[in-house]
Design a protein that fits this description.
Blueprint: H1 2-29, H2 33-59, H3 70-85, H4 90-112, H5 118-148
Helix pairs in contact: 1-2, 1-3, 1-4, 2-5, 4-5
């Protein structure tokens, strides 16, 4: 059981690292100082989530992941290439952030469907609840920026 839980937690570590890197990239790409601050705060939150999950992996005797998913790295590279080729609007950047949050939501929802010890479930649920709140905030901003474009 511990191996299965370590694998599940490491997937969430990678997911959180993907979010951290994605939001840092978004902070670099936006011209809006308020969005830059929001993206930096989200990156920090994702980093804290990863650290909490890594501590759990270590406590269970596993080796914590330290990076993100390979496909996310490819996606970030593509996002930066698109940004270099054409100027992207903040609505476009928010759309990419929302897409990343959608992917993270899926990983967390999958994890919560698994049988887990209560303390681990509680941590994952707390992170998932925060993720949902931030996702809705990003979606609302995306809708607002798109409507004003």
């Amino acid at each position: 059981m511990a191996d299965r839980i370590v694998k599940l937690l490491n997937d969430l570590v990678e997911t959180s690292k993907d979010g951290e890197k994605g939001f840092l990239a978004a902070a670099q790409d936006t011209q809006d100082p308020d969005l830059r601050t929001l993206f930096q705060e989200r990156a920090e939150a994702c980093g804290r989530n990863a650290e909490e999950l890594q501590a759990l992996v270590s406590r269970l005797g596993g080796t914590p992941e330290t990076g993100g998913h390979v496909t996310a790295a490819v996606h970030r590279g593509w996002v930066h290439l698109k940004a270099a080729i054409a100027s992207r609007s903040d609505a476009d950047i928010l759309q990419e952030c929302e897409r990343g949050e959608d992917i993270a939501k899926g990983h967390y929802a999958d994890a919560l469907r698994e049988p887990l010890p209560e303390d681990i479930r509680d941590l994952i649920q707390r992170q998932y609840t925060s993720l949902m709140r931030h996702h809705d905030q990003i979606r609302g901003l995306h809708d607002r920026y798109r409507a004003s474009a």
